[in-house]
Write a structure and sequence with these properties.
Blueprint lengths: L2 H15 L14 H12 L10 E5 L3 H6 L17 H4 L2 E8 L1 H4 L4 H10 L4 H18 L5 H25 L3 E5 L4 H11 L7 E10 L14 H4 L4
Helix pairs in contact: 2-8
The chain binds flavin mononucleotide (FMN).
Length: 231
Amino acid sequence: MTDQTAIQTQILDAFAFRHATKEFDAARKIPETEFTTILEAARLSPSSFGLEPWQILVVQDHDKRALLEDVAWGANGRMNGSKGQLYTASHFVIFLAHRGQTMRHGSAYLDRHLREVKHFPEEALGGFKGAFAKFQTSDFNIDSDPQITDWSARQAYIALGNMMTAAALLKIDSCPIEGFEMAPVTEILGREFGVDTEALKPAVMAAFGYRASPPRHPQSRRAAEDAIRWI
Ligand SMILES: Cc1cc2nc3c(=O)[nH]c(=O)nc-3n(C[C@H](O)[C@H](O)[C@H](O)COP(=O)(O)O)c2cc1C
């Protein structure tokens, strides 16, 4: 097998291995170095204009996880008669999306990001900021706080996907979680998790660990000719 063929096999094996895990083996913990690698896959993910409009909250305190139980129906197991992901996951992550306060063109946050993270030279700042303002107000027309937050969440989902793929390559299971009530979760994050909810809003959650049992269903997907159109 050539190197390229071996890599293709490894990639496809990882995608076949990954499934939305409903319950993890609570006794098994992901080694720290492996979870750090999974987090790096998120941190190094691409984002529109390179603005990384997310924050990743890793919730390891089970008392804090318990606060979400009643409002995270997609993770508490009640829907499928399992122990759920919330308590059994080795690592539980909440992706927070930046809101208008930080991600609207012209914000002080963006200015600092461009200077301190992107290391933009002073003479290039004006052009970049102008292009981003045009993108927001005209090209994509995303000027309201909910629109900007949704745009941030879309970037966060790229990081989420990369984390799940990195995990699968390491034979670590995962489950993305959108099954939660937005308003109470936001309120709890603000009150109990120290999240500045004026600046950040929950986008999606994800659980990582090792499956407690084999997947309940075989993987099912549309055929390639239905899902992909070549022109
Ligand atoms: C954004 C997103 C949110 C999801 N939310 C949940 C959830 O709250 N709870 C859950 O058990 N599965 C959740 N899933 C898993 C999907 O139901 C699952 O990926 C899909 O049915 C395909 O199955 P598979 O991932 O096992 O191949 C979510 C998936 C995605 C991508």
